[in-house]
């Protein structure tokens, strides 16, 4: 294992100057800036009233209907582009940019994005995952030419899963370590050959508390995390860009139809504990 190369790939995303910051209020008034790694800010104290619950359900239904509409349109495009798999990836990214932005507008949560300059970087993006909102933000913020990697069962997710497969994104069988390792080698080759970026959720599942979970191993074997996104980083020589979301686990909780109003933060590119907490420590342990 070339640890010096691996360390340089991680350091490649450290900013040489103060990171750009832009606030994207989706309503007339933003509700404050959450501390990175500490959850969201400005959350509604009373979210149990019938009016609040009703509005939440309406917003989530509107998200589903909107995703259905955009998915139908892009599914037609994907079928027309079926002979060109890598053009389908880019069209899938365009669908994600539009749909992710619409989802966040419908939900109405103010968003603060830090490190937006990294959203145009060809890289391996590693993200924490605690809420469906993380998916919307990833769809919106990652650059065109980004391919996802997920468990093979994603095809059964309504709308998103089917378009994910049509857009030529990648799936692995985590229950078969040998096949998973072979898939990683093929993925690295495709990324390098076709000048793609990669998005991956190394925890392997959603965090219920919003805290970062240990990075997933294949089938709980002795396979190290470096055989995952670190393995691909070594093969492709791409920099590793953490993408840390905070407040999303409060904005839309797991297995719930309750969407709350409050600020969420997306931090791209920070690899120091002061900037992105647990993600930096996890990367440090892997390296």
UniProtKB/TrEMBL annotation:
Region annotated Disordered sits at 21-43
Compositional bias segments (type: Basic and acidic residues):
21-36
Presence of the UniProt keyword Transmembrane helix in the record: yes
The cellular component terms of Gene Ontology attached to this UniProt record, alphabetical and capped at eight, are: endoplasmic reticulum
Q: Where is the Phospholipid/glycerol acyltransferase domain?
A: 123-248
Single GO MF annotation: 1-acylglycerol-3-phosphate O-acyltransferase activity
Q: Which residues cross the membrane?
A: 57-82
Q: Which GO terms fall under biological process for this protein?
A: phosphatidic acid biosynthetic process
- Keywords (A to Z) from UniProt: Acyltransferase, Membrane, Transferase, Transmembrane, Transmembrane helix
What is the protein name for this chain? Phospholipid/glycerol acyltransferase domain-containing protein
Q: What is the lineage of its organism?
A: Eukaryota, Viridiplantae, Streptophyta, Embryophyta, Tracheophyta
């Amino acid at each position: 294992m070339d640890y010096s190369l691996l360390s340089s790939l991680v350091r490649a995303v450290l900013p040489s100057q103060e990171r750009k910051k832009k606030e994207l209020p989706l309503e007339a008034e933003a509700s404050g800036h959450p501390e990175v790694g500490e959850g969201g800010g400005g959350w509604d104290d009373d979210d149990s009233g019938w009016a609040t619950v009703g509005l939440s359900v309406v917003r989530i239904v509107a998200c589903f209907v909107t995703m259905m509409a955009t998915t139908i349109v892009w599914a037609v495009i994907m079928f027309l582009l079926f002979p060109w798999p890598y053009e389908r990836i880019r069209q899938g990214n365009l669908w994600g940019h539009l749909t992710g932005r619409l989802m966040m507008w419908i939900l109405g949560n103010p968003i603060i994005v830090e490190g937006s300059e990294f959203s145009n970087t060809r890289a391996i993006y590693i993200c924490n995952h605690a809420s469906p909102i993380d998916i919307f933000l990833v769809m919106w913020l990652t650059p065109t030419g980004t391919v996802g990697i997920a468990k093979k069962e994603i095809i059964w997710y309504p709308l998103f899963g089917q378009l994910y497969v049509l857009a030529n994104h990648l799936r692995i069988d985590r229950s078969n370590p040998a096949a998973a390792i072979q898939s990683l080698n093929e993925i690295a080759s495709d990324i390098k050959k076709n000048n793609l970026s990669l998005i991956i959720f190394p925890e392997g599942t959603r965090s219920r508390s919003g805290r970062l979970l240990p990075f997933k191993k294949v089938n709980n074997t002795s396979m190290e995390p470096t055989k995952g996104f670190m393995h691909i980083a070594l093969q492709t020589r791409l920099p590793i860009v953490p993408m840390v979301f905070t407040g999303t686990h409060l904005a839309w909780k797991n297995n719930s139809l309750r969407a709350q109003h409050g600020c969420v933060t997306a931090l791209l590119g920070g690899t120091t504990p002061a900037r992105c907490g647990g993600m930096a420590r996890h990367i440090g342990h892997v390296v």
